Amino acid sequence: MSNAGAYLLDLQEKLGGTVPAERFMQEALYNPAFGYYSSRIRTVGRRGDFSTWATLDSSLSLGIATWIKKETPRHVIEIGAGNGELAKDVLRRLGWWTRLRTTYHIVEISAPLRAKQMERLRGFRVVWHDSVEDALQSTNGHAHIFSNELPDAFPCRIFQKTEGGWMELHLHIVDGKISEQLVSATLPESSIFDHPHPIGQRVEIHESYRRWQEAWAPHWMSGAILTIDYGELSKKLYHRRPAGSLRGYAVQQRLSGNDVFKNPGFCDITADVNFTDLEKWGTNLGWSVETSSTLLAFLKEQGATASLPMPFLEAGEAFRVLIQRRSN
């Protein structure tokens, strides 16, 4: 039995016979010994298990750099910088004068990815941090923050609508095989429950992302936060998607259904982001919504779509941008 299998069996016993899907994802992605992001991932892009917009096209770096130059912050914090390619392109596009008066920070918890970033960003003035709290402490709480495909990397709770109401997905492990069980649970705060859904509908809620934001938000005094990810507003998020959006990626192959939970630690696990939740959770923290649009609309506003290939024009409608602002 693998280390991951033995660990999860022991965890299952401690938790009373099943493991909530969110906890399973937490271990599969971030366990220090076998987690995908903490120990197994080697790179992002064509040679990795999955690609991001930033590893396939330069329009994103142009859009972000243009936004930063308009905002003129003294400190910029990128959270989860992948293989460092986006950071390198953004820094190049900022130009030497903006780089001179702006300190670029990266928050990265993945040791393999941090090593890639340090290698790729050699020669640039970049400061790395283990947490957003650490980064904000070094900026006295005043910073502009951005991320690309970050919320979807957080473990999510999974619920299914039944005749008796919403129930939460748990996993049960026997002889190395994983089966699904639905368990009664208290529903988290989410706009997804404000809309009607048919019996059998599955939904994912990134409650761990909300908890994470709440932990560092008191340290953020002023600035703006730019969030880019694939997802939709809650009303449209699950249109014609009765099985939800949970999926995995390994060696550029998409996994679905129960295959997502096989071989924990060896694949990325992700789900689409509910941007209505992100807006509401930020409002609860005292942040105002400045922009909520598709990525394509954001890139057009920044003048970054001039040479964008047709596939990216189409994909730009599947990604969203949320800009929230924190003022004293």
Give the gist of this structure.
This protein has 328 residues and is α/β, with parallel strands linked by helices. The protein has 13 helices and 16 strands. The longest helix has 17 residues, at 85-101.
The CATH architecture category equals 3-Layer(aba) Sandwich
| Helix-residue proportion | 25-40%
State mean pLDDT (0 to 100 scale): 92
How many beta-strand segments? Answer: 16
Low-confidence stretches: none
- What is the CA-CA span between the terminal residues? 54 Å
Percent strand: 25-35%
How would you describe the overall organization of this protein?
The chain is globular. It has one domain: Rossmann fold (3-Layer(aba) Sandwich). 35% of the residues lie in helices and 26% in strands. The model has no long low-confidence stretch (mean pLDDT 92). The protein contains 13 helices and 16 strands. Strands 2, 3, 4, 5, 10, 14, 15 and 16 form an eight-stranded mixed β-sheet that branches. It starts with a helix and ends with a strand. It is of the alpha/beta class.
List the SSEs and their pairings.
Blueprint: H1 3-14, E1 19-20, H2 21-30, H3 36-40, H4 53-56, H5 59-71, E2 75-79, H6 85-101, E3 103-107, H7 111-120, E4 126-129, H8 132-138, E5 144-148, E6 157-162, E7 165-174, E8 177-183, E9 202-205, H9 207-216, E10 223-232, H10 234-237, E11 247-250, E12 253-255, E13 268-270, E14 273-274, H11 275-284, E15 288-294, H12 295-301, H13 310-315, E16 319-326
Parallel strand pairs: 2-3, 2-5, 3-4, 5-10, 10-14
Antiparallel strand pairs: 1-7, 6-7, 6-9, 7-8, 10-16, 11-12, 11-13, 15-16
